[in-house]
Design goal:
The structure is a single chain. By secondary structure, this protein is of the alpha/beta class. It has helices spanning about 15-30, 60-75, 90-95, 110-120, 130-140, 180-190, 205-215, 230-240, 255-260, 275-280, 290-300, 305-315, 320-335, and strands spanning about 35-40, 50, 80, 100-105, 120-125, 145, 165-170, 195, 220-225, 240-245, 265-270, 285-290. A six-stranded parallel sheet has the order 9-8-7-10-11-12, sandwiched between helices. Strand 11 (about 265-270), helix 10 and strand 12 (about 285-290) form a beta-alpha-beta unit. Helix 1 (about 15-30) crosses helix 13 (about 320-335), helix 6 (about 180-190) crosses helix 11 and helix 9 (about 255-260) packs across helix 12 (about 305-315).
């Protein structure tokens, strides 16, 4: 099951939903019988689809949990693989079902009780070692790591770009993604910056867009191209000298970083969260601890071999490798291996 936030696959923004599409389609391709429970509008070839129903007279968490259980029963599922909220697994697990919960963000400490109730019938899978390590400490339970992935074949490798190729910021426009820092660094380095991604007009993120990003757009040295679909993303990333996303939080994974690497585009960011697991400093890009580090990295972009960037994804973050990992976890859940904390 996926979230109730965006359809699978998503038209533009939706990292979790992209991973769900890759995993579900891949498992079906490998001969597994799969059903998908996801937001309205979801559709994957060859997979039975079910849409989340609006809650009626009961809280959303309970309504979704009951729908998970009933859908799994009708489908005669051996296990449920969830990319949604932890509590949605409760009705299924409490009636004897086994499940795997994939986490693309840190779980909240308040679900420690839920984790304890789920017990050894459910495995938790962090999208990075960072998430698995922190999740184990926060909520307990049985944790494994299964990296997020991309279908490498969908990304066009660009072996070389011109010396004056732009830097690209591709993410949602938000303080934690460091859009304003990317603008500062690009201007300081005298480089053109292309900004792609969605923004909102309300709340803190809306204030940030209006005050710290929009006034600095000029259509030439700092250009905003808006949200991008898959084809546009390929073009934007492939034409970039590097992707520059100076994260201001502990990034759980950051799918955009492996999308960039799949195009041969080096990554420049801060060494926070899962970034050190994705980017080898000086090999696939550069990780720093402060803006001065990233400024110096911009001057070293041409030291990075774009073919090596592409191989990094092929060898570590491809769909097939993630499918292999999940199949091992499914086997563990089926009882052929004992769960270990």
């Amino acid at each position: 099951m996926s979230t109730d936030f965006a359809p699978v696959p998503p038209p533009t923004y939706g990292g979790i939903e992209r991973v769900v599409a890759e995993v579900a389609s891949g498992m079906a391709r490998r001969g597994h019988s799969c059903a998908l429970l996801a937001a309205e509008g979801s559709c994957l070839d060859g997979i039975e689809g079910h849409a989340w129903e609006p809650p009626r007279r009961v809280p959303r968490g309970l309504a979704h949990g009951l729908q998970v259980r009933e859908t799994a029963r009708r489908f005669r599922a051996d296990l449920v693989h969830s990319f949604g909220e932890t509590k949605w697994m409760l009705p299924w697990a409490l009636t004897g079902g086994r499940g795997l919960i994939s986490y693309g963000v840190l779980p909240q400490g308040r679900i420690r009780f839920v984790s304890a109730v789920l017990g050894d019938r459910v495995l938790m899978a962090g999208c990075s070692d960072y998430i698995s390590r922190e999740g184990r400490a926060l909520v307990g339970g049985h944790w494994r790591t299964a990296y997020n992935c991309v279908d490498v074949a969908k990304y066009r490798m660009v072996p070389a770009v011109p010396a004056d190729a732009p830097l690209v910021f591709l993410s949602r426009i938000d303080p934690i993604k460091g859009t304003h820092i990317a603008i500062d660094l690009a201007q300081r380095a005298g480089r053109r910056l292309v900004i792609a991604g969605n923004h909102v007009e309300t709340g803190e993120s809306g204030d940030y867009w209006r005050a710290r990003v929009r006034p600095r757009l000029n259509g030439s040295t700092v250009e905003y191209v808006g949200p991008v679909n898959d084809a546009q993303k390929n073009a934007v990333l492939g034409a970039a000298a590097a992707i520059l996303v100076p994260i201001q939080w502990d990034e759980p994974f950051g799918l955009v970083f492996i999308e960039a690497l799949a195009c041969g585009t080096p990554v420049i960011s801060f060494a926070r969260g899962a970034l050190p697991e994705i980017v080898r400093h000086g090999v696939d890009g550069f990780l720093g601890n402060d803006p001065d580090d990233l400024f110096r990295a911009i001057g070293r972009i041409r030291e990075i071999d774009r073919q090596v960037c592409r191989r990094r994804v092929e060898e570590c973050f491809s769909t097939e490798q993630t499918l292999d990992r999940y199949e091992l976890l499914y086997a563990e859940l089926s009882g052929r291996q004992a769960l270990r904390a």
